[in-house]
Amino acid sequence: MSGVEPIPAVAAPVRPGAGPWRQAATRILRNRSALTAGAGLLLIALVCLLAPVYAGSIAHTDPFVSNISGTTVVGGQEVQVLQQSTEGLGLGVTPIGPTGDPGHYLLGADNQGRDVMARLLYGGRNSLLVGVSSALLCCALATVLGVVAGYFGGWIDAVLSRFFDVIWAFPVYLLAICLSVVLLTSGLHLGPVHIDAGSLALPIVIIALIYVPYVARPLRGQVMALRDKEFLHAAVGLGASDLRIMRREVLPNILPTVVVFLPLMTALNMLTESALSFLSVGVQSPDASWGTIINDGLALLYTRPMITIAAGLFVALTAVALNVFGDGVRDALDPNARLRGGA
Amino acid sequence: MIGYILRRFGAAVLVLFAISVLVFLIFFATPGVDPAARIAGKNADPATLEQVRASFGFDQPLPVQYLMMMKHLFVSHDLTSFVNRGTLVIPQIMDAVPVTLSLVVGAAVIWMVLGVAMGTLAGAMRGTLVDPLVMLLGVFGVSLPVYWLGEVVNLVTQKELHDSVFSWVPPLGYVPLSQSPGQWALHLLLPWLTLALLYAGIYARLLRGELIQALNEDYVRTARAKGLSERRILIRHALRCSLIPIVSLFGLDFGALVGGAALLTEVVFGLPGVGKLTYQALQNLDLPVIMGTVLYAAFFVVLANAVVDVLYARLDPRVRRA
């Protein structure tokens, strides 16, 4: 067994005496692939945040306005953005392909003459926004439900667990598509919550809801294991209220697992958003996301493949970075956490 | 053991019932949703709306509507589509099942063989090039959008290289096995590989982790002390235990895919399976078809869950008391 790195059952303390969060931070800072992935994520987020700068100062276009009869300059010559098709009967138009010139349609135009690169950056903002906020919402909901179910047990646990079972048994994409199809036409009106159809909040809420059992189930298990620990009995003996015990004793113990889930859920939620948008039940026009751009590019797949390829590469790169970074977070905080597959 | 099985399947039936109610409520009781308005069209006048309501039974109380739908689905088997009136739902699903089964079974064989082979290699050859390669494929498996990979595969095999390397690739679509086994396999080869590639990476990575943990266990040390060969220890001792979580995960994934989780792959490759049927029904808001396909999908997921649990209980008696 020489020359083989042992897999530690519990991550070895890197700095004796330091708190668990600080130790985890130290471990992450020593993990080169996690750091690279984190830097890549920051870069992607930064580039997407700068979308207005790109559209305004470099590309000089508005990526949300059709430009069907517009012209642009390629190699010093003025050409139509939508060119008369030379294939078949020559009836259709083909948008201009990648020019390699950031000022004039770097990655070409889509079938409404809009700059693909600028749309990718704007779309990335929505894809990242949906991914991150639905992961936050999902983890927050799952933490509350998981802690309540695991702490109280009894009929509360029975009801919540059955609820998780039902959502769990529902194929996730089908549930998401069912909810989207209904809510995208009517909007969501539930008590004080009012979300307009077509709002970005709709895919965020739907995606957050469908993945709650994925996070809540393992958390519930952890909380149940904590219930028999001595420090919890001590808190009960001191007369602490249920709310205080959950907040001050239980929550800090499961928080590392929640943090481990966050980047991985962000990747999963972003992929789900792109799939829903690809099926045109996610982000709605005029908003764009990487999924809607892949969908837009489908009609042009064989003539202008760059639209679909570039949008998909953005999704894939971001998801790879999030997953590699998430694995680093897991190794640093909770190496035994079983997050993917089965559990 | 029999008591456990009965309890487990009883719970499964309850979950199925809850799912059917949930789907029904999503489509019929979401505030602001009027199924009659959808069928009648956007600018239908009140009289037409009333007519549609009466003819589809939407004027009945919700529980009655639910029971009617369930009766048509399970008792008289004559549930008909809202959109194409007269088209029966159950035969539509039955026609789509062989397509989905062909896709999923073929892909599952490929990804299990690939995944187990790669995972075992990576676990046994830690420190060599195989190891990081498998890890990378595992990350791709959870990161690449399958529909996008499918589109890129289509682009390469149907357009870019169709005149040279991939001239043998048939156009998108499905040929039944009974009609021509060769064409059946040829049409499904690329969908199989696309679907299998992602799962193979996930499984290989999971197996590698399990195998490395197993190789650190006491029983492996005992086997070494007995003087067994490394190959025998790996295959007969470590791999056998490591495969248990893989097999249970396989049960769940297979159930979900047969149920329609392969929807994106079917849509991209133009395969008329259950996933594509569901997708089309959702686009037209054809509620009876949606109800049928979702219940069919949930049936496979719940069944797979129950079978996996029972198998686990068979292997590990402690579970039965839980």
UniProtKB/TrEMBL annotation, chain B:
<dbReference type="Pfam" id="PF19300">
    <property type="entry name" value="BPD_transp_1_N"/>
</dbReference>
<keyword id="KW-0812">Transmembrane</keyword>
<dbReference type="GO" id="GO:0005886">
    <property type="term" value="C:plasma membrane"/>
</dbReference>
<keyword id="KW-1003">Cell membrane</keyword>
<dbReference type="GO" id="GO:0055085">
    <property type="term" value="P:transmembrane transport"/>
</dbReference>
<keyword id="KW-0472">Membrane</keyword>
<feature type="domain" description="ABC transmembrane type-1">
    <location>
        <begin position="97"/>
        <end position="312"/>
    </location>
</feature>
<dbReference type="InterPro" id="IPR045621">
    <property type="entry name" value="BPD_transp_1_N"/>
</dbReference>
<feature type="transmembrane region" description="Helical">
    <location>
        <begin position="184"/>
        <end position="204"/>
    </location>
</feature>
<keyword id="KW-1133">Transmembrane helix</keyword>
<dbReference type="Pfam" id="PF00528">
    <property type="entry name" value="BPD_transp_1"/>
</dbReference>
<dbReference type="InterPro" id="IPR035906">
    <property type="entry name" value="MetI-like_sf"/>
</dbReference>
<dbReference type="InterPro" id="IPR000515">
    <property type="entry name" value="MetI-like"/>
</dbReference>
<feature type="transmembrane region" description="Helical">
    <location>
        <begin position="241"/>
        <end position="269"/>
    </location>
</feature>
<feature type="transmembrane region" description="Helical">
    <location>
        <begin position="129"/>
        <end position="149"/>
    </location>
</feature>
<protein>
    <submittedName>
        <fullName>Peptide ABC transporter permease</fullName>
    </submittedName>
</protein>
<keyword id="KW-0813">Transport</keyword>
<feature type="transmembrane region" description="Helical">
    <location>
        <begin position="289"/>
        <end position="312"/>
    </location>
</feature>
<feature type="transmembrane region" description="Helical">
    <location>
        <begin position="9"/>
        <end position="29"/>
    </location>
</feature>
<comment type="similarity">
    <text>Belongs to the binding-protein-dependent transport system permease family.</text>
</comment>
<feature type="transmembrane region" description="Helical">
    <location>
        <begin position="96"/>
        <end position="117"/>
    </location>
</feature>
